[in-house]
Design brief:
This protein is mainly α and 92 residues long.
């Protein structure tokens, strides 16, 4: 897979995950944590969709994607674990 596309899809995934978690857990979190998650979720989502729309301008050599791409994949995995634990704590 193209590194620019994978990076953009990670942005979209994390944005959708954070936005969904903010909507799902609206009444169970404090106002500040809800605002933080709901504020970052749509920003990640819009950034990822913008990047997917403009992939031709993001075609950097693969060596420039290294640490940033790995950190976004790790962020996606960590966000999935955090939301899964929230779901378990809320519904389990």
């Amino acid at each position: 897979m193209d590194p620019a596309r994978l990076e953009s899809l990670c942005f979209v995934y994390v944005g959708a995950l954070f936005t969904g978690a903010a909507v799902l857990f609206t009444w169970t979190q404090s106002d500040l944590s809800w605002l933080a998650i709901f504020g970052t979720g749509p920003l990640f989502l819009v950034a990822g969709l913008y990047r997917l729309r403009n992939l031709d301008r993001l075609r950097n050599p693969p060596t420039e994607f290294g640490a940033r791409l790995y950190s976004l994949v790790a962020l996606s995995a960590l966000a999935t674990v955090v939301v899964a634990f929230q779901l378990y704590a809320h519904f389990g």
